[in-house]
UniProtKB/TrEMBL annotation:
<dbReference type="InterPro" id="IPR051924">
    <property type="entry name" value="GST_Kappa/NadH"/>
</dbReference>
<keyword id="KW-0413">Isomerase</keyword>
<dbReference type="InterPro" id="IPR001853">
    <property type="entry name" value="DSBA-like_thioredoxin_dom"/>
</dbReference>
<dbReference type="InterPro" id="IPR036249">
    <property type="entry name" value="Thioredoxin-like_sf"/>
</dbReference>
<dbReference type="GO" id="GO:0004364">
    <property type="term" value="F:glutathione transferase activity"/>
</dbReference>
<dbReference type="GO" id="GO:0006749">
    <property type="term" value="P:glutathione metabolic process"/>
</dbReference>
<dbReference type="InterPro" id="IPR044087">
    <property type="entry name" value="NahD-like"/>
</dbReference>
<dbReference type="Pfam" id="PF01323">
    <property type="entry name" value="DSBA"/>
</dbReference>
<feature type="active site" description="Nucleophile">
    <location>
        <position position="12"/>
    </location>
</feature>
<protein>
    <recommendedName>
        <fullName>2-hydroxychromene-2-carboxylate isomerase</fullName>
        <ecNumber>5.99.1.4</ecNumber>
    </recommendedName>
</protein>
<dbReference type="GO" id="GO:0004602">
    <property type="term" value="F:glutathione peroxidase activity"/>
</dbReference>
<feature type="domain" description="DSBA-like thioredoxin">
    <location>
        <begin position="4"/>
        <end position="197"/>
    </location>
</feature>
<comment type="similarity">
    <text>Belongs to the GST superfamily. NadH family.</text>
</comment>
<dbReference type="GO" id="GO:1901170">
    <property type="term" value="P:naphthalene catabolic process"/>
</dbReference>
<dbReference type="InterPro" id="IPR014440">
    <property type="entry name" value="HCCAis_GSTk"/>
</dbReference>
<dbReference type="GO" id="GO:0018845">
    <property type="term" value="F:2-hydroxychromene-2-carboxylate isomerase activity"/>
</dbReference>
Length: 206
């Protein structure tokens, strides 16, 4: 089975906007999505990009305003039309819940989409254990058990490992997808991801 490695953060708006299309592509091409939630800030710093707080108003207004609005309309996904008030809260719990769901053999795809949508549609706080548990419960999971697992040393070690791997593989931000080692940054590259599953792109010559 072909694989799509999926590096992202549970609070990433562009991961949210691409999540359902990613699922469609995986189903269409019988590909397995491997979720690799990561700590986004050190990944961005390692890539040499300015932190979001340091970016110009012109950049922020377009990239985190107009682009989100258009893509939300294009993908027919609701969003709160502003930056979520909990957006800067720690992500270890939310990311850990996704890693735990995948490790436990639960429906990680559904949980991931639920977390992303809850943040960008409902202003959910991914640092709040009760919020994460409720989202998991709504999917028929044991929310309390999932939260406990998400906070465990083993799951948090995997979160840290995902972040280190993302830095080592020069991930630029969230979401980033890999197909057979070829990197695709941004949900606007999903059609290229689909093409790569059928016919890999030519490699750059050394």
């Amino acid at each position: 089975m072909k694989e799509i490695e999926y590096f992202y953060s549970c609070h990433s708006v562009f991961a949210y906007l691409g999540a359902w299309r990613l699922a469609e592509i995986a189903a269409e091409h019988d590909a397995q999505v491997i979720h690799k939630p990561m700590d986004l800030n050190p990944v961005i710093a390692a890539a040499g990009s300015a932190p979001f707080s340091a970016r110009s108003k012109t950049h922020s207004s377009y990239y985190f305003g107009r682009e989100i609005t258009r893509w939300a309309e294009y993908r027919d996904l609701p969003w709160i039309m502003r930056r979520p008030k909990h957006h800067d809260n720690p992500l270890a719990l939310g990311n850990g819940a996704i890693i735990a769901a995948q490790t436990m053999g639960l429906d990680v795809h559904a949980l991931s989409r639920a977390l992303l949508q809850a943040h960008w549609r409902d202003d959910a706080d991914h640092a709040d254990a009760a919020t994460i548990a409720a989202l998991a419960d709504a999917l028929g999971m044991d929310g309390a058990a999932l939260v406990d697992a998400a906070q465990s040393d083993a799951i948090q070690a995997q979160h840290a490992a995902n972040t280190k791997v993302a830095i080592a593989r020069h991930v630029l931000g969230s979401p980033t997808y890999f197909v057979e080692g070829d990197m695709f940054y941004g949900q606007d590259r999903l059609d290229m991801v689909a093409r790569a599953l059928v016919k890999p792109f030519a490699k750059l010559s050394a």
